[in-house]
Structures are given as structure tokens and as C-alpha cells.
Specification:
By secondary structure, this protein is α+β, with helices and mostly antiparallel strands. Helix content is 38%, strand content 15%. A hairpin with a 5-residue loop joins strand 6 and strand 7. The longest helix has 17 residues.
């Protein structure tokens, strides 16, 4: 039903074979048959699932990187309605479905009592994304001037790192096919002591391997612990 509504809108707005003002019912019926035929074809669906399967975890890591950078980078972050959790919506009308805010409030209330291992274990519920957003929003008042943090090593092109005042953001990029071993990839933490509010680990200033920072959670949000962590 969701896919059919999306296809109908896409076809009408393309205005090549049908449109909102001049509906070509025969064409739209053919499109519907095509969609239903695909979804009802076990061989196609099995092949489709095999293709999608390896993309899920890298896609989630990218989602966490995007939301963390969005909240900590200069500017005002915009979180689309309902996307505090993973969102697999197509464009409208699919992304205009009612949002279950009750479920989001329930999950948010659970976060403080959950260790990071359980948050990750419940990844299918979207808890890692909700956790990242909640923790990042809490420290926004500590953001300051932007400064780049250089990253060196064999996989340095796969890391985004910058400082905003008392906050450091570390986010992987281009992770599809990236081996979990970060090797000698490292960055230099500025003076002070740093608390990763996403994994609860603490770090001293100086050179640190990216693999150590991202050991417990796919992205890192370090906050200066020389003052109150909030």
C-alpha cells in the first residue's frame, strides 16, 4: 500500500504518462500490477533481501554520523518529524504518516537505565540513534568556535573530526566495505581531559587511535571533563 501510493504520486508528477489533472487509469493499473508482481515474486524478493542485507549496518553507521555532525556542526540542526529513530520512509506521501510519539517517549525514558551494550543490542528499535540525538542535544550549550582536528594514518579519509569549544565530534564516513580494524589511524586530542558521553569512556590529551575511541559505539562525542559534563 505504501509503495503503491509512492509510485502513483511519482508517476503523476513526472507527467509523462499520467498526471494529477489527466489521470491515465490504464497506465496506473499497469504500474500497480508491476509493483504487486515484484513484491509477490519470491525469487526477486529473496535476491532483493540478499542485496539489502549487507547495507543495513553501514547505513546505520552513516545515519549516526550524519545526525551527530548535524547537531554539533555550526548552524541549526533540523530533525524531521519522527526521525529520532531509524526512518525507512519513501518521500511523500509515505513520510507524512502519523508519528508514534508515545513509542518515542517510552524509549527515551528507558535510555538512562540502559548500558551502552543494551542500547546497541536493541539497534533494530532505533535506540542507538535516539541515544546519539539525546546526548548531543544535551551538550549543545557547550559548543563554541569551530576547529578542525587532523586525522592521520592509513584510513584517515574515513573519519570526520572537529572541535566546537568544549566538544569534539568524531564520525566515520564511507564505511561500506571498511574493515573494522582502524590500524594506525589516529588523531590528536587537545589539552584537557575528555569524556565520551556516548560510551562513558574517558581520554587524556595527546595522540589516540580512532579504533580506541570508536571501540564501544560507532561515533564519538567527547566533552571536556575539566568542568561539569552536564
Amino acid at each position: 500500500e505504501r509503495l503503491l501510493a509512492y509510485m502513483r504520486k511519482a508517476a503523476r508528477e513526472a507527467k509523462r504518462h499520467t498526471s494529477w489533472t489527466t489521470v491515465n487509469q490504464a497506465f496506473e493499473t499497469a504500474v500497480q500490477g508491476f509493483v504487486e508482481g515484484l513484491l509477490g515474486d519470491p525469487e526477486f524478493m529473496a535476491e532483493f533481501e540478499r542485496f539489502v542485507g549487507p547495507l543495513i549496518e553501514p547505513g546505520r553507521v552513516h545515519a549516526l554520523s550524519q545526525v551527530l555532525v548535524k547537531i554539533t556542526a555550526p548552524g541549526v540542526p533540523d530533525i524531521y518529524q519522527g526521525t529520532e529513530l531509524w526512518d525507512l520512509s519513501l518521500v511523500d506521501p509515505d513520510n507524512r504518516r502519523p508519528v508514534d510519539y508515545g513509542a518515542r517517549r517510552r524509549l527515551l525514558a528507558e535510555l538512562d537505565a540502559l548500558p551502552i551494550e543494551q542500547i546497541l543490542a536493541r539497534g533494530d528499535e532505533g535506540l542507538p540513534k535516539l541515544w546519539t540525538i539525546r546526548q548531543a542535544v544535551r551538550i549543545r550549550e557547550r559548543l563554541g568556535d569551530y576547529a578542525r582536528i587532523p586525522v592521520g594514518g592509513e584510513k584517515c579519509d574515513h573519519v570526520i573530526a572537529f572541535q566546537r569549544g568544549e566538544v569534539i565530534c568524531i564520525a566515520p564516513r564511507l564505511v561500506l566495505g571498511l574493515v573494522e580494524d582502524w590500524g594506525d589511524t589516529a588523531l590528536m586530542l587537545p589539552e584537557g581531559r575528555w569524556h565520551n558521553v556516548l560510551s562513558d569512556r574517558r581520554f587524556a590529551p595527546g595522540s589516540i587511535r580512532v579504533g580506541d575511541v570508536l571501540k564501544d559505539f560507532p561515533v564519538a562525542l567527547l566533552v571536556s571533563s575539566d568542568s561539569n559534563d552536564g
